[in-house]
Amino acid sequence: MPRSDLLLMIISRVSALLSAAVVLVILGFLFREATPALLEIGLSRFFTDRSWHPLSGNFNLKPMIVATLVTSLGAVAIAGPLGIASGLFVHFYAPPALATWHRRIVELLAGIPSVVFGLWGLVVLAPIIANLGGSGQNLLTATVVLGLMVLPTVAVLSDNAVAAAPREAIHGAAALGMSRWAIVWEIVLPESRSGIAAGVILALTRALGETMAVLMLAGNVVEMPTSLLSPGRTLNANIALELGYASTSHRSVLFVSGLILMLVVSVIVIVISRRGRPIR
Amino acid sequence: MKLIHPALYTTVLVISLAGCSGSPSSEVSVEADGNLSGKLTLTGSSTVAPLVTEIARRFEERHPKARIDVQTGGSGKGIADARMGVADIGMASRALKSDETDLTAHQIAADGVGLIVHSSNPIEELTAEQVNSIYTNQTQNWKDVGGDESEIIVVHKAEGRATLDVFLNHFSIDNTTVKADVIVGENEHGIKTVVGTENAIGYVSIGTAEADIAADVPIRLLSLGGVEASTATVASGEFPMSRPLSLITTDSPSPLAMEFIRFCQSTEVHDLVRSQYFVPVTSEPNAAQ
Lengths: 280, 289
Known about the structure:
Structural class of chain A: mainly alpha
CATH architecture of chain A: Orthogonal Bundle
Number of domains of chain B: 2
Number of domains of chain A: 1
Pfam families (chain B): PBP_like_2 (PF12849)
Structural class of chain B: alpha/beta
Mean pLDDT of chain A: 88
Strand order of the largest sheet of chain A: 1-2
Number of helices of chain A: 12
CATH class of chain A: Mainly Alpha
Protein name (chain B): Phosphate-binding protein PstS 1
Shape of chain B: elongated
CATH superfamily of the largest domain in chain B: Periplasmic binding protein-like II
CATH topology of the largest domain in chain B: D-Maltodextrin-Binding Protein, domain 2
Shape of chain A: globular
Organism (chain B): Bremerella alba
Oligomer: heterodimer
Order of helices and strands of chain B: HHEHEHEEEHEHEHEHEEHEHHE
Low-confidence stretches of chain A: none
Number of strands of chain B: 12
CATH superfamily of chain A: MetI-like
Keywords (chain B): Signal
Radius of gyration of chain B: 21 Å
CATH class of the largest domain in chain B: Alpha Beta
Number of helices of chain B: 11
Helix content of chain B: 25-40%
CATH topology of chain A: MetI-like fold
Largest interface: A-B, 33 and 31 residues
Low-confidence stretches of chain B: 6-33, 283-289
Domain PBP (chain B): 30-267
Radius of gyration of chain A: 22 Å
């Protein structure tokens, strides 16, 4: 093996190991900080306690797990179809000039900081949704804004996936007289499925990790949501709201909340990437 | 201190005297003056930190050899760090609790907590019983406390926040009985929530609310027990729901720490205290406990 190859091999292996190690170090840290609470309280009480009042010894995390899943999955349900449609639009339906501008605008959407989204949701969207009842700060408002925030991820990755669909197949289909819609539906979408799926997974994990905007919009009350108009608190918002003010045992309990979030994210990513695999 | 060059010593003396002119504490600073170089670390309340950061900047201008490092992390962390000696001084936006008597609080400012409603809400004042029954969900409609016919949206703070402690203590509410519609973090989050929801009630730092009202934000502070909620009534001690903003030390703080605390309590920083929407306290040493 030439020297330069050897060097590159070492560098890439070390980098790969380091990036995997970062995740393990974070997990280890989470475990270390959460251990006092897990030993003292036990994992089961985080699911069976009456409510979330950590200063009074009640530690129920279930409503927060539900709120986290509802807002993230809801956001992907909004962003998924819109993002995929956007990817198809720029390749098959938009005039070239419009396609360029459309791409730029979608990319710009990705650059808006999440507090700005949060503030916009708080002063513009929440008062509108308040007309449906309540304060306007609820799971629906958070989900809609979260959907807008993860939209560019799906749109850009769908755009790339659609661009990678084989030209010969598309041209061949066109030569056979298939309509544009039939080409998109029968050839482009199946061919770009794994790329689009990657975009959806990335969007979902981003939605699961988003904190600031959700904290500002979801209402943060910890109770089992009964509808989309119920307020809810996500696991991340819980940490952001309370960690700065938490001392010893309360702090440790918040690390358990982080650990559970990590668990929820891992389960979702593993399940989805299993389902996405057979395609390529 | 034998090593300090006489000329340097004189310079420091002159600077520190100039810095303390008009302050009642100038005598002490002459004694402590040989120690006015060094590093201080402060941690704690995110409410107090911005104010102390400003004061520290001014202090460093006057004493170029002193370095003051301000970090946040909440009142609880400030108190714990001061106790364990991790920080020279802790910052707390609440009074010390009964199990924290081994520490000394040096009050540098006060902050009132006031109830706010949307300015379109006709309510001017609520009694303590009414506030209690609203927050524990016994009163659910504004018409029951003399307002319009509309559901009350209860805005509450997240567990562990100092403002929450002040509120719960004042109205003797057990936090587990509170039935909130929205839980907020920062004061501005609370104010924006009330602005966006005409039938909401919340509570925030009076200074922040006053500044927003001055900027035409449509909220109104409610009087409490017949006392108007304003920084003026907090300063005079009339307003009942207020909290001290303090610097926390052990019994024997270093001379530099003492000097910094004295500076924070002096009239020379009152403009900074007001600019952060807090209420200055008198410059008497150890005004707190």
